[in-house]
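Budget justification aside, the reviewers requested a transparent look at the raw inputs and outputs of the sequence design task funded under Objective 1. We therefore reproduce one unedited record. The lines immediately below are the structure tokens for a 190-residue chain.
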């Protein structure tokens, strides 16, 4: 699971894909000429559904896409992406449009992924398509805070993390954490 809203498991948000053969179509298995196209299409649908679930988060105002690359392996990339996107400190910083690179590094450190500060770089995607580098070569970078804030203002925020350890990649999606989330979840009993 690479989606997070409040770091709890929900009984309401899930997707099930079934193939029982009753449609009478040809079975697509590994090695089938259409297997790669089917896998790409299924991944596209699942990614779209994951993003929709996060976009519909109670009290959420932003969809956060956390891309981790350069991990030692795919498992480390998943661990780091998931830990950062579930971090309450990161969620609240993004809600407040605060480019708090320290919270991101703290979450990476908490993930158990293989990483080192001197090889790690953090970037925010700018609405114009460029990027703002927050941290690289073991040090915070000299960046324009207004530009960084502009990266965090849209309803979709992309954070790119390069761990500089290998070729592992993963993406996780999450929502920000807002006063409205707290209000909604403190006013009813199930």
């Amino acid at each position: 699971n690479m989606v997070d809203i409040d770091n709890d498991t929900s009984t309401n948000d899930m997707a099930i894909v079934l193939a029982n053969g009753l449609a009478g179509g040809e079975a697509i298995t590994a090695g089938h000429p259409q297997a790669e196209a089917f896998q790409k299409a299924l991944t596209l649908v699942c990614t779209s559904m994951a993003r929709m679930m996060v976009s519909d988060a109670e009290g959420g105002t932003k969809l956060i896409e956390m891309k981790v690359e350069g991990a030692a392996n795919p498992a480390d990339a998943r661990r780091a992406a998931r830990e950062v996107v579930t971090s309450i400190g990161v969620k609240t910083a993004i809600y407040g449009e605060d480019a708090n690179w320290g919270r991101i590094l703290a979450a990476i450190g908490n993930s158990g992924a293989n990483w080192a500060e001197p090889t790690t770089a953090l970037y925010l995607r700018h609405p114009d398509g460029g990027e703002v580098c927050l941290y690289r070569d073991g040090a915070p970078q000299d960046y324009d805070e207004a530009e960084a804030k502009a990266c965090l203002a849209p309803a979709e925020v992309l954070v790119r993390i390069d761990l500089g350890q290998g070729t592992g990649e993963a993406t996780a999606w999450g929502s920000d954490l807002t006063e409205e989330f707290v209000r909604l979840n403190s006013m009813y009993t199930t």
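The CA atoms of residues 106 and 161 lie 13 Å apart. The chain has a mean pLDDT of 94. Computational costs for records of this kind are itemized in the attached budget.
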